Amino acid sequence: MKIQDLHSAFLANPSISTDTRKIKTNDIFFALKGENFNGNLYAQKALDSGASLVIIDEEEYILNDRTILVKDVLTALQELANFHRNYCSAKIISLTGSNGKTTTKELINAVISKTYKTVATKGNLNNHIGVPLTLLTIQPDTEIAIVEMGANHLKEIEFLCKIAEPDFGYITNFGKAHLEGFGGIEGVKKGKSELYDYLILNNKSIFLNADDPIQLEKLGTYTKKYGFSSENSKYYNIKLVEAQPFVTIKVEDTIIKSNLIGAYNFTNCCAAIIIAKYFNVDLSEVKNAIDKYTPNNNRSQILNTNGHYIILDAYNANPSSMTVALENFYTLNKDRKFLILGDMFELGNTAKEEHQNIADLTKKLNFEQVLLIGENFNRTKTTATKLKSFDNLKDYLKENQIQENSTILIKGSRGMALERVLDLI
């Protein structure tokens, strides 16, 4: 089947599924493969569950004229997404970066949707499968699509740009994330900058944090850039008023009080503001959107549990995000500060050094109590309490009650699933 014909079938039933457990009537099922699964095996189940078409890439699973054989299912999904992206008139804003992508994406969507018909990446579906699925949610009347792009190795952002063909782009930052795949911090800078490279090559517009010297250097004299800054008068001026604990911002004569903790969320708000300004969204609408935005999904959530003030930031962690989280936690005007930190993953041969750096930082900042959980933290040299696994943490908290009215930061990589701590406190 030609991509044009597949697209015509998609327009007739514009809903995609890659999981037979979640199929809705008339979905088109793409039988993707992975290391531990083969979607072709579920062709019959997909049809029985109500799929209008099933896209397969193994001839033996052809069942009837509703099973469509292609050379490679994933490639077909990506080509369909690119075809649909060009079929529709929506402008694409893509963003990547080491930290803050999802929060920034949600903030951009919150402010832009005040004036425009938008779609945005759901959750963090930001890879070679998630980006195509996001593009395929674009409707004929969609005006702007906000597409998050994640990467853990070189050339990945470049590939995603070829699928999404963004009109605009923003990079949140360049931090110590996925160091194993990128081969170090210089690889991170090069990999994330593939979004810049695509936009510059195609003479597209770039949004930037003009207070980030890395971004300024990489963009050089490129003219189609629109930035924000706390100090540089050449760019749109936005000021951080405070972050105790929530970020408060001054832009023009307007004060915006967010529900986001930590000064590190200031630039995420700024990105949404500069993009809203570019698209002529009224500042009062921007204020309203940011004022009302509340983080969820274990990302910088504020919780009050059994008298404790808890910052739950357990969605992910890397050395950069862990450092700024600890530094921000240190500045909070709160008593009895308690840390529960989990291992940071995908650091390769830098894991030992980076975990030691974080352990040293907790000592330098002199927090009242520190629990370090995971095999990497267990190998550090520190006076903090080290626990090799979550089960060890569970046993520890059964025997050692947390002091009443404590302020607790919970942070670790996704694989640590430290949100489970809430059940123990």
Task: Give structural notes.
With 425 residues, this protein is α/β, with parallel strands linked by helices. It folds into 3 domains: 3-73, Udp-n-acetylmuramoylalanyl-d-glutamate--2,6- Diaminopimelate Ligase, Chain: A, domain 1 (3-Layer(aba) Sandwich); 88-292, 3-Layer(aba) Sandwich (UDP-N-acetylmuramoyl-L-alanine:D-glutamate ligase); 301-423, Mur ligase, C-terminal domain (Protein-Tyrosine Phosphatase, Chain A, Alpha-Beta Complex), CATH 3.90.190. It contains 16 helices and 21 strands. It is globular. The relative contact order is 0.09. Pathway: Cell wall biogenesis; peptidoglycan biosynthesis. Residues 299-414 form the Mur ligase C-terminal domain.
User: What CATH architecture of the largest domain do you see?
Assistant: 3-Layer(aba) Sandwich
Average predicted local confidence, pLDDT: 94
Structural class comes to: alpha/beta
CATH homology superfamily of the largest domain: Mur-like, catalytic domain
- Beta-strand percentage? 15-25%
User: How many strand elements?
Assistant: 21
N-end to C-end Cα span: 56 Å
Principal-axes shape call: globular
Number of domains: 3
**Helix-residue proportion:** 25-40%
Can you summarize the main beta sheet?
9 strands, mixed
Strand order of the largest sheet: 8-9-7-10-11-12-13-14-15
CATH fold-type name of the largest domain: UDP-N-acetylmuramoyl-L-alanine:D-glutamate ligase
Unreliable runs:
none
Highest CATH level, the class of the largest domain: Alpha Beta
- Rg value: 23 Å
How many distinct helices?
Answer: 16
